[in-house]
Structures are given as structure tokens and as C-alpha cells.
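[Q] Does anyone have a clean C-alpha cell version of this?
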Amino acid sequence: MFARILKTVVILVLCAAPLSAKPLSRILNNTGLSPADFDILMATETSLVDRGQVGRTESWTNPQTGTKGASKLVAQRGSCLYLQHFVTLSGNTDRQEIRTAFCQQPDGQWLRAPA
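[A] Here you go.
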């Protein structure tokens, strides 16, 4: 009986997990970033990951949209780097926080990972 209940719980958890995960495109869409803003944000991420210096902050501005932000490499755990971004959309005073992570693969390539 216990095994049957445990099996049911495991199935429910596995089925529910994809429902709670949001793809990056949906998260970014919810932020209001334009594709050009996102490109600048990604270039900043790449710069921070390439340098690998925990605590380093880089600011950016998109002159086309007026959106600006600051990105910081906040931690390194194992082969993963964790970044924190604060973004202010044009015409808005509220900052939004976005967290991202990148993990280095055995071949040296950095891949985006859940933050």
C-alpha cells in the first residue's frame, strides 16, 4: 500500500514540475524588455561570465528604448556562475530583478541553467 501511495506522489510531482517551470522567453516577456534590451543584457552577461570575477558589476543602457540596467556576478558554486540583474524600463522608476545562472560544461562551453 505504501509503495502505491509513494508511486502516486512521485508521478504527481513529476507531472507538476513542468507546469511550474517558465521558459526564459516567457520570463523575459513578462519583464517588458525589448529584443534589443535583451541583446544588451545578454552581452553584459557574456562579459561577466568571460571575466569570472565575483562581485564585478557592469551597467548598461539601451539608447533606443531608454531601458537601463546593472548586472552583477554574485556567486560561483562549483562550475556555475550566478548573476543578478536590476533593470529599469524607460519611463518607469521601479527596478525589476532578474536572476540567471550559467554552468560550464566539461567541453568548456557555458550553458544557461536554472537560477
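[Q] Thanks! Anything notable?
[A] The longest helix spans residues 2-20.
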